[in-house]
Amino acid sequence: MPFGMDKPPTKEQNKPQLSVKSVLLASEMRSKNSFGNRASSRMKSIPIIAVSIALAVICLANEENPPTPASTDLARLKIREGQYTQGILKKDTQLLSGVFAETFVDTFSSGQVVNKQQYLDAIKADSSKIGSLNVEDQKYQFYTDAAVVTAKFTVKGEDEGKPFNTTGRSTDVWVKINGDWFCVAAHSCLIKP
Predict the structure, then answer these.
(1) Does 76 map to a domain?
(2) pTM summary value
(3) Does any domain span residue 5?
(4) Domain shared by 181 and 134, yes or no
(5) DSSP assignment letter at 108
């Protein structure tokens, strides 16, 4: 028999004795373990979340950057400027008609102002032969649905049997109409040697 016991314990005495204090201690222990497990669980999930976020960022960074409206406008305007240049080089009035807005005006270096139809008629009537038209130093400035393009150009060819080689500057004003760019105004002048 254990020390201090005169007789063997009864069934009642063998039962664990639950006091209010022991219930509170057990409850506190459970909540600590439960919190500890939740905290541990949270701590385990934090690296998983961090890794997931890192992978998402890496995947997004590796995707091609989608085009922005500004880059799309620039790309389209470069195409339209190229069409303008090709129209002049090949004297393609149908192509030029599609590049120019109905309200197109061109101011020649002489000061003469012509509308779209007059410009196209002048292209048709021109007897010169353009061998090459090189455009460089193009600068694009955008203003919402309008743009100004400045450039330097060199034209080589033959007029009335005589060769020519001229260099000049041009300014083209473009407006976005129904989602596409149309030239509404142009001006060019020769650079004196």
Answers:
(1) yes
(2) 0.64
(3) no
(4) yes
(5) -
